[in-house]
Each structure stands twice: as structure tokens, then as C-alpha cells.
């Protein structure tokens, strides 16, 4: 039996090996044909496993190196708000991109911050989010376009993952908007959330940092672990919808300290009123 200290040491050694190797493997590339939303690339490495790269057909020349901030040198700048680190704004021809590495939070981050159990490439977090973004855009919902996603499979059934998405130009997070005290902004957000819910999107991390404001438009971002709920489970009073709203309300209390409690409550009621209003067709 492994002692606790021995197990921690073993896991640390394995993760150190992965960290050294992760950006040095080059997948072989092949193009998908037809009307597929993506380009597939797979690579096999005798010493470290396999990788899968998905690329939007609008982008050429994407390689595994694109997922390392070092590749972009001074053009990759860390995202300062939200998340657990591991995200960068990449300065390239407009609109630019956001690079995000998938990372754990909580206690598990102490043992495997970037490693996840591998059960197949279709179940990896980057592939799932890449495909979901394509589905949401096909539904006409305001989300960024996925540029590329990658998953690296390593020994002992683990993988690491990253995604690149287009940046929303001239956008700020909801809590940083200069319209934060504007009742119409909160009503607009209520209507946007309702659109996503009506289409079955369960955003499990709906918070102020995952809502972007640009001009008169609102976007939702960061769909890690999110999913489209089957129509049979998409009732008006579904529990998952209430959990989304409760998650956002907790974030508002934390991320909008400039609003007084009475202001927050008033603005939140405007959001709920717009959310519950019957959509016009």
C-alpha cells in the first residue's frame, strides 16, 4: 500500500514529466472534407501517447505550438480577471484570440491541476467545448467562435487540454461595464439568458466574468462542462435553470461591490422580470 506521502510524491513525479513534455509533441495533420465544422489532426507518440487537434476551417496553419503562450512571445498577455489563471489574450490580426488551458480548482488542483481522467477524445473538455460552441453559433446565440482545440493523452489514462477562441472586440466583463447601474443592461441580460435557456443551454458557471459587454451587445463565454439539455428535460421551471440564476446572483454580490445592496436587488429584479417575460416571436 502506498503511504499518503508516497502517493503524493508519485503523482508529483508523473505530473512533472507531463509538464516537461506537453508542448514538445507535434501532431500529424490531416484535413476533414465536406461540410464538417472542423479539421481533425491526430498524432501518435511512442513515449507519451496521442493527441487530437480540432481546427475551424476558417483558420490555416494552426499547430500544437499555438497552444503555448511562449510561442506568441510578447503577443500573449495574461487575462487578469476571472478564472484560475491559465488564460491569455493573443494579439494577432483582428479580432485576436483568447488561449485558455483547462485547470482544476479546489482540493484536486493540489494533486492534478491540469490533468484529467481520459475516457476518450470525444469526452475531453476541449473537444466538448469546441463542438458545443459550434452548436450554439448554429442556433444564432451570442458566443465567440472556436478557433481550435487540443487534447494531449498521456500515460495512465490522463490528458491535458487547451482551447483557442476568437476574442470579442472592445468587450469588458459584465461587472466592469460602465453601464452596470443601467436597468436596461440587466433587463437585456435577462433576455439573453432566457434565449440560452430556451435553447437548452445549461451554463454551469454563469458568473459576471463569463458575460461580456461590447457596445449594445452581450455575449456568454467559457462553456467548459456546459451542455445542451435534451428537450424532454427543458421545462420552464427546470432546476438547472434556477441553479444557473443562483450562481449568477452569488457572483453579482461578490463582483459588483460598487452597487449598494438595494441597487443590486432592484437591478436583479429587472433581470428576473425580463427573463420571465414571454419571448416575442
Write the layout of secondary structure elements.
Elements: H1 4-21, E1 28-29, E2 39-45, E3 49-55, H2 69-72, E4 76-78, E5 87-90, E6 97-101, H3 109-112, E7 116-117, H4 125-138, E8 146-154, E9 158-166, E10 172-173, H5 183-198, E11 201-202, E12 211-214, E13 217-220, E14 227-228, H6 239-255, H7 261-276
EC number: 2.7.1.166
Organism: Marinobacter salarius
Active site: 205
Write up this protein.
By secondary structure, this protein is of the alpha+beta class. The protein folds into two domains: 4-166, no CATH class; 172-276, Orthogonal Bundle (Transferase(Phosphotransferase), domain 1), CATH 1.10.510.10. The chain is 32% helix and 22% strand. It has seven helices and 14 strands. Strands 1, 2, 3, 4, 5, 6, 7, 8 and 9 form a nine-stranded antiparallel β-sheet that branches. Strands 10-12-13 form a three-stranded antiparallel β-sheet, covered by helices on one side. It has a two-stranded antiparallel ribbon with strand order 11-14. A hairpin with a 3-residue loop joins strand 2 (39-45) and strand 3. Residues 16-36 have low confidence and may be disordered.
Number of discrete domains: 2
Fraction in helix: 25-40%
Overall pLDDT metric: 86
Q: Name the shape in a single word.
A: globular
Q: Report the sheet-strand fraction.
A: 15-25%
Terminal-residue CA separation: 63 Å
**Count of runs of 4 or more consecutive helical residues:** 7
Radius of gyration from CA coordinates: 20 Å
Which structural class fits the helix and strand makeup?
alpha+beta
* Number of strand elements: 14
Low-confidence stretches: 16-36
From N to C, what is the helix and strand string?
A: HEEEHEEEHEHEEEHEEEEHH
Largest sheet: 9 strands, antiparallel
